[in-house]
Amino acid sequence: MKRLHAKRLITALSLLPFPGMAMAHSGDHASGGLLGGIMHPLAGLDHLAVMLAVGIWAAAVLRKQAWQPVATFLGFMVLGAVFGMSGITLPALETGIAVSVLLMGLLLVVLARVPAMSGVGLIALFAIFHGNAHGLEMPASASPVLYATGFLLATGLLHLSGVKLGKLFTELRSEWVLRSVGVAIGGAGAWMLLGS
Prior knowledge:
Distance between the termini: 37 Å
Number of strands: 0
Helix content: over 70%
Number of domains: 1
Largest sheet: none
Strand content: under 5%
Mean pLDDT: 84
Oligomer: single chain
Radius of gyration: 16 Å
Number of helices: 9
Shape: globular
Order of helices and strands: HHHHHHHHH
């Protein structure tokens, strides 16, 4: 079992040197609508890392309250997306996204047991930045409803995957795996900050 976890960690760490995968905000989403919305959170390491980390951290630390950060992220991401679809770009958008990746990694490294409301508030802030990027990247020809449905669906699935992983590693008492994932995610965030 430990070998399998080590292989996955090594695979995740090996992705860090590829700048093309780091940010999903290239502006090049060939498909609008539902498919474009689904692909946006999956197309970049920034979104993928944060969305998985939110679920993993919520399950490992908040346990029975794991639904709170997940629901909060989804709700505030929609708010950020509405800003983006309206043409409003948050200040320091890419830096805010990179900081969210770094801080979610750090929360996992230390398995931070912050009060639920503090953690949820921080995650709400992260979600607004990620949602804003989703909204700004929506192709002009896309249906806003279909596009939003797509990125909400993909985000929800990533969160649920993270929750399942967090529960699994907690049940197996594999804190070192959770912390290792945090190191990888935090490292990715630090690397993104250097490039933003």
